[in-house]
Amino acid sequence: MARSRPVSSWTLFLSLVVLIGCIIVPGLTVKHENFKTCAQSGFCKRNRALADDASAQGASWSSPYELDPSSVLFKDGQLTGILIKTTTNNEKFRLPVILSLLESGAARLVVDEEKRMKGEIELRHNSKINKKRYDESEQWVLVGGLEASKSAALNADAEAGFTKVQYGPDNKFQAVIRHAPFEIEFQRDGETHVQLNHQGLLNMEHWRPKVEKEGESESAEDESTWWEESFGGNTDSKPRGPESVALDVTFPGYNHVFGIPEHADSLSLRETRGGPGNHENPYRMYNSDVFEYELNSPMTLYGAIPFMQAHRKNSTVGVFWLNAAETWVDIVKKSTSSNPLSLGSKSKTDTQTHWISESGQIDLFIFLGPTPQEISKTYGQLTGYTQLPQHFAIAYHQCRWNYITDEDVKDVDSKFDKHQIPYDVIWLDVDYTDDRKYFTWEPLSFPNPKGMQEQLADSERKLVVLIDPHIKNKNDYFVSQELKSKGLAVLNKDGEIYDGWCWPGSSNWVDCFNPAAIPWWKSLHKYDKFQGSLSNLFIWNDMSEPSVFNGPETTMPKDNIHYGDWEHRDVHNVNGLTLVNATYQALLERKKGEIRRPFILTRSYYAGAQRYAAMWTGDNQATWDHLAMSLPMVLTNGIAGYPFAGADVGGFFHNPDKELLSRWYQAGIWYPFFRAHAHIDTRRREPYLISEPHRTIISQAVRLRYQLLPAWYTAFHEASLNGMPIVRPQYYMFPEDEQGFAIDDQLYLGNTGLLAKPVVTENTFTTDIYISDDEKYYDYFDFTVYQGAGKRHTVPAPEDKIPLLIQGGHIVPRRDRPRRSSALMRWDPYTLILTLNKNGEADGTLYFDDGETFDYERGAYIHRQFRFRGSTLSSEDLGTKGPKTAEYLKTTAGVTVERVIVIDPPKSWKDKSTVTVIEDGAKTASTASLDYFEQNDGKADYAVVKSPNVGIGKSWQIEF
Ligand code: NOJ
């Protein structure tokens, strides 16, 4: 008989370690060695070195760029001229510059290089690529807003050596251009808000031939990354040599800068030149599939929007750096003081930013605000607003990698119903395909895709399937054959079809820069090509950075070639945008006459992609820290003009415990794009599988999202008209409240006054909500009152409670009848929630339409303004009539307001039992009952009007 050994304390310790290891999810960390730091990226390093040099030289540093005064012309809102760059060898290079003053109040500075424009350069390695600096980003990104200012004029008072142009609303803006050294200051009302080249870091690496040197180079410059650059075993051949562009942008007196997604970092961006709490590297924008990405980092992620807002008390300004190449942004905050002995109020902070791109032109837009709303609007005029999505798209999406059969999908679908949890969309990840060939179905596991979609359609649900831009390189695959025979693939540097490794193994990539790729891509989405797909199927474009498993930094080589003979280097960051542009067109009309709003999800994006697709933050992890980070990430996207954003609810990698999962749903309902997703190796976690009480907690959260869908859709509509974020950070709502500027863990839903602060830490049962103003805020569920400006208020947050307040002064539309999917709520009546502000008034809006077609463009919608003034609640029309208005109003005639809940009503209402209801067109007024409910313990009273039954599309008044 074997003797059992006594358990040593060492064995015990080891067992404990193993046990703890099993319980605690190991934190995954990114493989830093796979992605460049600035020091490992030649052009970034060179430009940072230049900045270091400038800062070391201090006042004796002078920018070697001068505007040739004799070249300056001003005509029709445009100032043109030639910048001269003088090198240390006294060589001179001509850089044509255009400063356009736009009717919108924005200004645009474009700088190019004459030699490259004229093609007077030699390419290396017999390359046939385009000799110019890439100047086509705008074709993908800009959709308007470029009308020249009619009133812009030269200011005759300019001192010698300066040119001044007045422009903007009432000509209150002025661009002050110093010729030598070249600098531009943008002023509003005589005060400087944005300075270009104030630090003297403007740099345009001019073309030069490679001079073969023997032995040690005499040159002081480090040429090691000019002609070739290697990283991780890949060598970039650089046929055009060094060509980076860089410029410093200073925001004098501005302490906060926001934007430039995508990074897993705070909303208020950090400094990037080291020091406690700061980053060591600039924020990088080079769309990448970063496996196991880290938090609080300036590392690049999947998307890029080089748009930044700078904010200080009561003033917001911004810049948009339109460049599709790899870009880095350094941020430094400098405290200055007009009087060196003064502390506090007299001292101010300047934020200095340094923008560095690998190639292309300098193309910079400058916005002078002064409000964040104006900046959103003007930026949106240029890059387009979020498309008003189909209504289902703003409801709950159920995804995982992978639902394994069509029966599995049907089963999940039925179980949601059985457990009475609403959802609208179920998703299929990559493995629904036959051998990872897109536009096909795995025949054994998905033998009946139509039957599956039909079951979903029974409850008006949708299916989203994944279609990636890599096409399996297989001769018997029709998509691959067509891609090759039509010449639509991205090429390698030698002009052959580029082959790389992705999900299907050996793959080729569709080049959506090629106009001919669009009709082809459209044809693939037609019902006869994508067989087995029905009209309730929509598309997920993933891996579109593009992700290439065996490529440099998990993407394509920079010397790959796209349509127009542009290098991948030039266009990398807009690549994902070109794919969703093609998919958008494909989904607009899958069969003749069936025109509907497309729904697409994209992982990679650039400025402008908001016109086509929703985005999500990629492969996060099931940890509390990732849950917390999702809020600043979504908020940042919103202020960067891309509000239809979300994060994988539950976390992509790993298994969340029940508490984390429920808290994630409670937070996820505040993402404009609300989807649960999980990695293939995770345990199933559909909400109905979770044991009680968490199943109910999650169901309640999802139901709250559904209840508030009218408010969400209204906020989306607003975003589609003026670029306003759908969920908004504190500074955006209260631009005067300095204490709120850095807050990024609570958010406002549109204009509703709803203020949510999801719990994002474990074992937390209260939370502090910061309130900027002096209005009363009411707990959404029990009407507890919180009031007091400029401080935090402790709000209970037991596991089953979402900390949610509503500010006084709002009228919020919602729908209270739970249904299986949002489409089934279409004819349901509305409830209005009303809170009064200090003046006893309230306002709110409601927008809705058929949620599917473009008929709203022809008047088929309802847009109402609700107001409470004196003792009257009214509904007025905000819409303008179109050819489809009357018909739409007829179809919605039966939709009414079934209830009005007034929180904290005037005490005099205690004595009332009815209200008078007057509806436009009704012969007589009617009455509805009013019940008054008293509460105590800090909870406000409330009153309920039952069944006023006024038509939602009609004008009416309710007299209290
Ligand atoms: C990467 C995506 O980020 C993830 O969401 C997806 O599940 C996998 N690709 C598989 O398609």
From TrEMBL:
GO terms for biological process, alphabetical: carbohydrate metabolic process; N-glycan processing
Segments forming domain Glycosyl hydrolase family 31 C-terminal: 723-812
Pathway: Glycan metabolism; N-glycan metabolism
Source taxon at top rank: Eukaryota
Gene3D superfamilies: Glycosidases, glycosyl hydrolase (family 31), Golgi alpha-mannosidase II
Domain Glycoside hydrolase family 31 N-terminal: 100-330
Enzyme class, first EC level, given as a word: hydrolase
PROSITE patterns: GLYCOSYL_HYDROL_F31_1, PROKAR_LIPOPROTEIN
Residues of the Glycoside hydrolase family 31 TIM barrel domain: 387-715
GO cellular component, one term: glucosidase II complex
Molecular function GO labels: alpha-1,4-glucosidase activity; carbohydrate binding
Family per similarity comment: Belongs to the glycosyl hydrolase 31 family.
Name the record gives this protein: alpha-glucosidase
Lineage: Eukaryota, Fungi, Dikarya, Ascomycota, Pezizomycotina
